[in-house]
Each structure stands twice: as structure tokens, then as C-alpha cells.
């Protein structure tokens, strides 16, 4: 099945009525050049574009499709939900069903609020942290992405411990002035921030594995140190597990490391491909949220029954056995990439959290500066060498990529061979 249109024709048409031809900037291929692919269908680990080309997908919609596209049990649950209602704008039992499944894996989340995106979840968490503590400042880390809420679209200012500067026009300087941006994995910078601004910091927001600068693991003691300083000061620790949530059998990084944040943000996997986010945490904190408390947050489609049904079916399929398989597939791909890089003489390294992988053309980095010091300049060529061999990687060097349960041996071998060929070409 193909529409008879080319990707280029679709892109030209889209640009006439959509800003840049897209609804989310990275899709425009600006970071890698060339024409974005326009897709018609996805099944298992494969994407099919309008020209009838098939790709092994390692973007997986940026993480949600952990079971693969079109998983039969998920589709059946969604079809059933659609037949019952598209939306009530009122309560349904499905919301508590999904909340209970999340709580079973995230015991730090006593109470949960669903949203329609990860961005909204983080915005709600930040407002709640400020409302609960009656403090204004938020600490975040350079290279972590928390959605496009104003107070978080802020980059590090010049010099250590300065307030952030807006990273987009339209974000006010006042927003920057309430967000401290620190280097990731630098616990002494965090301790210094608390020495300088103790009693004024509402929350420390962190991706417990940095998933938006490639995939950067926390160094030992970093997250533990953040827990310590926040507890000492009375600030809240907020884990943004939008990418890492349900990536490992322990639930998230908090389960893996035994750290209990005050608030957790989730998205992606918990919606199984439908628009779902969530934030939740300590009962006394969450009870400050309306309707129990004064901090306002709401959503017309929050807890949407079709989205809830999709999330429930997805989490139901994530059995212990499924995580074993995801681990095996992730480990296989990690090995294949490292071997391909080694034999081509490319200095490549791979980081991995279960089925999520980061590829660096250089040593494993600890923060954004070190990520930028790797050969990110080679990524556009690598991306296209892979695309030409039918492998769809994220169209930016600063993204995590994924395997799903639907990636079979042949698919992973295809990706491995494509990396070997692409690295040889890069070297040559
Ligand atoms: N937090 C993290 C860690 C993310 O990676 C993302 C998106 O990629 C978000 C928040 C925002 O989620 P959404 O795109 O659903 O708004």
C-alpha cells in the first residue's frame, strides 16, 4: 500500500500549511538534513513510508512503543475502548486501573494525576513543588529536557551558579531568573547551589538518566547526593522518568537505585502510544493539588478512556518475561554496535538502560559539555547512511534510541550490519 506520493511531495505540501511542515521541530530533519519521511503505517518494529519503503524503527515514537507497533492486545483494548466512548470529560474506572498499575511499580507515587503529555506532567509537578514549599526557585541540569514549559526552556547562564537564560524567544527573563541550571552529574555544584540559595529552592528536577543528550547515566552518588541535599533543605526532589519509566523491571531508575523522590513524572510508555502523562508522589505533597488543595491543574482530556485503555494494555504486556527479552535485545544491539565501531576503527561507545540506548562517537560522557565534545558532527552522515539501508534512527545526535519487544533477530542483525557498513563508510 502506498499513496503514490513521494516523501518530498508530501513535505512540500505540508510546508504550505504547517509550520516548517511539521508539528514537532525535530521531525523536520533540520539537524541531519534531507527530506523527512512521511509514514503511512507501522507494524511490529517496521515503519512504512508513502513511497512503500520499509524501515527498522529505532525511534519507536520516541519511546512509547516498547511492545512494538500494533501489538494485538493493545489494539484490541483500544478498539473496545473506542466502541464504548471516545471521551467522557468525567470519571471512568479505567483511570484508577492504570494508576494502580503505576503505583505497583512506583511505590513513591502515593497519589497520581494524569495529563495528556509529559510536558504537562512536568509543568504540574513544578507548580505543585512551588505551591507546596512556598518557594520559587527550581534547579535543573543542562542537557536534561523536561518538555516545553516556559520555566524549563532555560539554558545555563555564563559562569557557575548563575541563573538560566531563556533558550527560546518568548520565554521571559523572569522565568530564567527562577531556574538555576547546573551541570549534570555534578553533585558539588548542587551542594553549592543549596549553600547559596538554601530555603529558596522549591525543587530539584532531574532526568535520573539524562535521555535528551544521547543517554547519559548518572555517576555513582549523584542522585543519592541530590536526595540528601533536598531532604536537608526541605526542597522537593522531582524525578522526570518520562523516558526511563517502565524501561526496566523495577519500574524506573528510582526502583533500580532505591531512591525515593518526592514527585515523579511519567509519560511515553504509560500511554502505549496515546497522549498520556502523569505526575504523582508523596501523599502530603499531592494533597496540595486541586480539588484537595489550592494548587490548580486540570485537563479536558486528562484520563481519556481510550488513552487509559491503551496504557493499561501496554503495561499488562510488560511481564517479567518481556523485560528479560527487552534486556536481551538491547544487549544484542549494544554488542553489535560496539563491534561494528571497533572493526571500523571508529571510537564509539554505547550506554544502555534496558531497551533504551545512547550512541556516542567518543567516550561515554558525563554531562552536556562532554556530549558536545564527541563527534556529533559525524551524526548527520551516519543517520543518512543508516536510513539508506532501511534503518530509522532519531534525526538528531542528542536523542536516545530504542528496541522493542517486536524487534526480531533478523531486524537487529539488519541494524547491526547497517552500522558496520555505515561506520566503514564514515571511516573511509
Ligand atoms: N520529559 C522528558 C524526560 C522527555 O524526554 C520529554 C519528551 O521527550 C518530556 C518530558 C516531554 O514530554 P512530551 O513530549 O510528551 O510533552
From TrEMBL:
Localization per record: Cytoplasm
Enzyme class, broadest EC rank: isomerase
GO annotation, biological process: protoporphyrinogen IX biosynthetic process
Keywords: Cytoplasm, Isomerase, Porphyrin biosynthesis, Pyridoxal phosphate
Entry GO terms, CC: cytoplasm
InterPro entries found in the cross-reference section: 4pyrrol_synth_GluAld_NH2Trfase, Aminotrans_3, PyrdxlP-dep_Trfase, PyrdxlP-dep_Trfase_major, PyrdxlP-dep_Trfase_small
EC numbers on record: 5.4.3.8
Cofactors: pyridoxal 5'-phosphate
Associated pathway: Porphyrin-containing compound metabolism; protoporphyrin-IX biosynthesis; 5-aminolevulinate from L-glutamyl-tRNA(Glu): step 2/2
Top-level taxon: Bacteria
Modified residues (N6-(pyridoxal phosphate)lysine): 268
Principal localisation: cytoplasm
GO molecular-function terms, A-Z: glutamate-1-semialdehyde 2,1-aminomutase activity; pyridoxal phosphate binding; transaminase activity
Protein family: Belongs to the class-III pyridoxal-phosphate-dependent aminotransferase family. HemL subfamily.
Annotated NCBIfam families: hemL, PRK00062.1
Protein name: Glutamate-1-semialdehyde 2,1-aminomutase
Native source organism of the sequence: Thermanaerovibrio acidaminovorans (strain ATCC 49978 / DSM 6589 / Su883)
Amino acid at each position: 500500500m502506498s499513496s503514490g506520493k513521494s516523501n518530498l511531495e508530501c513535505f512540500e505540501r505540508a510546508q504550505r500549511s504547517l509550520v516548517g511542515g511539521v508539528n514537532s521541530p525535530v521531525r523536520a530533519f533540520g539537524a541531519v538534513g534531507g527530506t523527512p519521511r512521511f509514514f503511512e503505517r507501522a507494524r511490529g518494529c517496521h515503519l512504512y513510508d508513502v513511497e512503500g519503503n520499509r524501515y527498522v524503527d529505532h525511534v519507536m515514537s520516541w519511546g512509547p512503543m516498547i511492545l512494538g507497533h500494533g501489538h494485538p492486545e493493545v489494539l484490541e483494548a483500544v478498539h473496545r475502548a473506542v466502541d464504548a466512548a471516545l471521551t467522557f470529560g468525567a470519571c471512568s474506572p479505567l483511570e484508577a486501573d492504570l494508576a494502580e498499575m503505576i503505583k505497583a511499580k512506583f511505590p513513591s507515587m502515593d497519589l497520581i494525576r494524569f495529563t495528556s503529555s509529559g510536558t504537562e506532567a512536568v509543568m504540574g509537578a513544578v507548580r505543585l513543588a512551588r505551591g507546596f514549599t512556598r518557594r520559587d526557585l527550581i534547579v535543573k541540569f543542562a542537557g536534561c529536557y523536561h518538555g516545553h514549559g516556559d520555566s524549563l526552556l532555560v539554558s545555563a547562564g555564563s559562569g557557575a551558579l548563575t541563573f538560566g537564560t531563556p533558550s527560546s524567544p518568548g520565554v521571559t527573563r523572569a522565568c530564567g531568573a527562577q531556574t538555576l541550571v547546573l551541570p549534570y552529574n555534578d553533585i558539588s555544584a548542587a551542594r553549592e547551589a543549596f549553600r547559596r540559595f538554601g530555603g529558596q529552592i522549591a525543587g530539584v528536577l532531574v532526568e535520573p538518566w539524562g535521555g535528551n543528550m544521547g543517554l547519559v547515566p548518572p555517576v555513582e552518588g549523584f542522585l543519592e547526593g541530590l536526595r540528601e541535599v533536598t531532604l536537608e533543605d526541605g526542597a522537593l526532589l522531582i524525578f522526570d522518568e518520562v523516558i526511563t519509566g517502565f524501561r526496566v523491571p523495577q519500574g524506573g531508575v528510582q526502583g533500580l537505585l532505591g531512591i525515593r523522590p518526592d514527585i515523579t513524572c511519567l509519560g511515553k510508555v504509560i500511554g502505549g502510544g496515546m497522549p498520556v502523562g502523569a505526575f504523582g508522589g508523596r501523599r502530603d505533597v499531592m494533597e496540595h493539588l486541586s480539588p484537595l488543595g489550592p494548587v490548580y491543574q486540570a485537563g479536558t482530556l486528562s484520563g481519556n478512556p481510550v488513552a487509559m485503555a491503551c496504557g493499561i494494555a501496554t503495561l499488562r504486556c510488560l511481564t517479567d518475561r518481556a523485560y528479560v527479552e527487552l534486556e536481551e535485545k538491547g544487549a544484542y544491539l549494544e554488542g553489535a554496535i560496539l563491534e561494528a565501531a571497533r572493526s571500523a576503527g571508529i571510537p564509539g561507545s554505547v550506554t544502555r538502560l534496558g531497551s533504551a540506548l545512547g550512541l556516542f562517537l567518543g567516550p561515554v560522557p558525563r554531562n552536556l559539555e562532554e556530549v558536545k565534545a564527541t563527534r556529533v558532527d559525524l551524526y548527520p552522515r551516519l543517520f543518512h547512511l543508516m536510513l539508506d539501508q532501511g534503518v530509522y534512527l532519531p534525526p538528531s545526535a542528542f536523542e536516545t534510541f530504542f528496541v522493542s519487544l517486536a524487534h526480531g533477530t533478523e531486524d537487529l542483525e539488519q541494524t547491526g550490519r547497517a552500522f558496520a557498513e555505515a561506520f566503514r563508510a564514515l571511516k573511509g
